[in-house]
Amino acid sequence: MNRVITISRQFGSGGRTIGKELAEKLGIPCYDRELIEKIAEETGYANDYVMQESEYAPGIGRFAYSFLGRGTDGLANADRIWFAQRKVILELASKGSCVIVGRCADYLLKDRAECLNVFVYASKEYRADRIVRLYGESPIAPERRLAEKDKKRKLNYKYFTEQEWGKTENYHLCIDSGYWGVQGAVNMIITALKEKDGKEVE
C-alpha cells in the first residue's frame, strides 16, 4: 500500500526539514525542490520562477491575482504552473509512497485514502528565531518576513483551492514544531501512520 504524506507548513516552522527526515526514516522519496524541477520541465519556466509562482501569491493584497497578465488562452503563467503542478503531484502520488512538501498537495490529494495530510506550525517567536539562524539577518524584521510569506502562501492556496490554508479541518494532523521539535514531529507522523494502517511501518 502506498503511503503519501503531504507537509503543509508555516514559514520558518521547519516543515521542510521534518518532511525530509520523515522520508529518510521511512525510506521513501521526498519531493520539495525536486517537485519544482519537475514542474519547470513541464512548463519550460526557470526553477526560481516556478518556486515563487507555485506557492506564493504575486502580492499581499486580496486582489493579488486580478492584475496578472493573461495570454490568448485566458491563462496567466501562475495558472499554467498550477496545471503542471497538479499533473506532477498526481503522477508522483500514483507511482508510489512519498512525502510531498507544500504546493497545495494536501488539497490535490485530499480524496486519496492512502494520503496523510500534515500541517506544521509554531509560535511567531520560534519561527522568527529560526529564520534568522538559518537565513541570516535581513533589512526586513523577521516577524514581518513571516507575516508576508504566510499571507502570500494563504492567498495562493485560496485562489487555487477555494479552501483556507492552515484551517485544521483540511488536515489529518497538525503539529507544533516549536513544542515537539523536528524529531518529535517525525515520530508523531510515524505513529499516526501506524494507527492509520493498523500495522507496523517498516
The helix/strand series, from N terminus to C terminus, equals: EHEHHHEHEHHEH
Tell me the distance between the termini. 12 Å
Count the domains.
1
**Largest sheet report:** 5 strands, parallel
Give the overall pLDDT as a whole number: 87
The share of residues in extended strands comes to 5-15%
Low-confidence stretches: none
Contiguous helical run count? 8
Q: Given this structure, which CATH class is correct?
A: Alpha Beta
The CATH superfamily is known as: P-loop containing nucleotide triphosphate hydrolases
Strands, total number: 5
- CATH architecture assignment name: 3-Layer(aba) Sandwich
Helix content: 40-55%
Structural class category: alpha/beta
**Rg:** 17 Å
Give me the side-by-side strand order of the main sheet. 2-3-1-4-5
Query: What is the CATH fold-level name?
Result: Rossmann fold
User: Which geometry do the CA atoms define?
Assistant: globular
How does this model look, in words?
This protein is α/β, with parallel strands linked by helices. About 50% of the residues lie in helices and about 10% in strands. It has eight helices and five strands. Strands 2-3-1-4-5 form a five-stranded parallel sheet, sandwiched between helices. Helix 1 runs parallel beside helix 8 and helix 2 packs across helix 3. The chain is globular and about 50 Å long.
